[in-house]
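Predict the assembly for these two chains.
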Amino acid sequence: MAWAGSDSQPHCKLSGPSEQAGKSLELDFSVAAVLPAGGSGERMGTAIPKQFCRLFQRPLISLTLEAFERVHWIKEIVVVVSQQNFEFMNSVIGQFGHSRTTVVVGGLTRHQSIFNGLKAFVENQPHQSWLMKPEVVIIHDAVRPFVEEDILYRVATAAKEHGAAGAIRPLVSTVVATNPEGYLDHSLERAKYRASEMPQAFTFDVIYKAYEQCTDYDFEHGTECLHLALQYCGVSAKLLDGPPDLWKVTYKRDLYAAESIVKENLSKSACIITAAQEEPVQLGTLLQEVLQRMMKVDLVKYSSSKESHCIQAISSGLYYNFIYINVHLNNTEALSCGIQKDDFAITKQLAKDAFGKNILIYNLLINYTQSMDKAQESVKEGALIIETLIKQRSPVLTGQLLVV
Amino acid sequence: MAWAGSDSQPHCKLSGPSEQAGKSLELDFSVAAVLPAGGSGERMGTAIPKQFCRLFQRPLISLTLEAFERVHWIKEIVVVVSQQNFEFMNSVIGQFGHSRTTVVVGGLTRHQSIFNGLKAFVENQPHQSWLMKPEVVIIHDAVRPFVEEDILYRVATAAKEHGAAGAIRPLVSTVVATNPEGYLDHSLERAKYRASEMPQAFTFDVIYKAYEQCTDYDFEHGTECLHLALQYCGVSAKLLDGPPDLWKVTYKRDLYAAESIVKENLSKSACIITAAQEEPVQLGTLLQEVLQRMMKVDLVKYSSSKESHCIQAISSGLYYNFIYINVHLNNTEALSCGIQKDDFAITKQLAKDAFGKNILIYNLLINYTQSMDKAQESVKEGALIIETLIKQRSPVLTGQLLVV
């Protein structure tokens, strides 16, 4: 039996199928988004700004863009980057097919960058097309990739009603004020305060007017957009409880966490493909039963006539992992089970070629020429290995022959 | 060649060799620690309280205890757990050899639990021995496992001098005050505030006196110890900048991050063990050269006379990963290289037995009966697999035969 833990597309949607694929939210006003991505990532301790750090060969910002592009009622997305990353960001847009995204050059500070992003909707900037001014604009950090449609919908509708809205979370740590000598001045009562997170949304005119009135001090030291809307437009933002996944990738450990979340999302479902003959189907069904305890598993049988059915499953985008069952019968006692060096080399080459497309291939050999009891045990063990390979997505083991 | 990515001891020190192993800090006053661990972990979304969630078969709290036990000047450690976890916590103490730790039953709230922990130093509580009252007590969360000696030393000495001290970190998010209707009241200027983290330290009498004066309201809603020391003893804590690794494991993503940090710590060094003959040494040296680009690698040669040298390396606790080189020469063309089913089964059984001791074993077969150029390429590929196996520590693949 051979199996491939593969992605259906050259660049899989790393954030996994949306939980809300079923829902279809509609809005009767126009919405666009601005994503400031000019940060240098000094807290990450890496040379690469965190928004460009790669998860499975894909920059973090591309995951965030994908999360926005899944939301059909967000018509335009503007990413604001520093001058030196402008070309690179455009290449990311091209490589990962972010068709609704426009790249804009930012300023020296976060607020200047957001303002530059907003200007893309009202002025004809060099290097970019003129975009239609939306009624509501969502502002979100490039380094918060796990944003879902629900919270985007809630901030957008609240902004339309109240002029401004933002996601908040309970404080994890107590907040303290220090005196100039470095001693505790006072602790804030945790219950009365919240962490202000992203996304935030504003009616376009409110946030644009606020930025127009900003002082140089605001641009340099200003805390956040909600505060500017309050200070310059008298708009008190509606605050909405957001989900925990909104957190900002700030430190290296956050990148580890993001990677694990992506892996988890990718390993929620798999598709077993088998020939229509009795033995492969039997093995496939057995494997499906075991794997189903860990993830959603569908079984697709192929024959010459059903091949298109199979191709359909692969290109549906519903699965990121495929298990292809191929039964070899033999009676040899040696482990190799008739696999000669050449066969092994072919699989390795196949895996090497596929890797460029973010597809990982492994060979799992299950000893099936034995009693049903033993076969079931082997399949169980095989299922555990399959689950691990799907979860770990380790490119180094691609092409390996694994034996249970 | 066979290799084992193994731990030297039944239960490896998951936090890795201390970065500060070289330093030997001394204090001229006595220090103990209290670790409240009574939380229910509701934010984690798991049934198990987060302090008992397992990383590599070991509860998180055991990692935190180990971090404290590495610091020789902390003489006693008191862990405070709920009544229902008392037995379990004691079994963890026994299983992982936490010899300087005493378990105490806590109260209904965090503050009551800390107070109970402090009482262990002044009263003869049921179920525990009377502990010597220290001059300074460090209070730390069970769910902040990556605490280093440096910050413990700094809070302890600052507490001795000022009566109280605590670690702080810059705020990641802006903090906002909400009005009762859920709108923004005001944003705090981020630069003026800090997140109050752990560890904190107090002269014992200051914190004990503060708790003695606490009201029921304080016990139930009180924000944190620093505040109580200020309110009831007029002691304004010295605040010290802490490292980013002090963060609190709060959400599931934090557990992912902790796991990745432990994996990274464990994969910083390895030890290659080879026979003293020409070929294994040659292969071992080649492998060392390649692996050294990714981690610190030492080479130990064994012969009958040097066996003790080898055992010394294994039991030193300096390495968590061993690569054992075993050269088989053969000329067969089949992949199995003469490994028959029985041999494979023996390795699998060996791996199964070792797994209970948190030791992972893999077989990596490098084709070495070829030109030097090709051998080097094979070793390079093998080194990548070794690195991955060391980093991923996947128990499911233990016992596998891998071929390059």
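The radius of gyration of chain B is 26 Å. Residues 184 and 204 of chain B are 41 Å apart (CA to CA).
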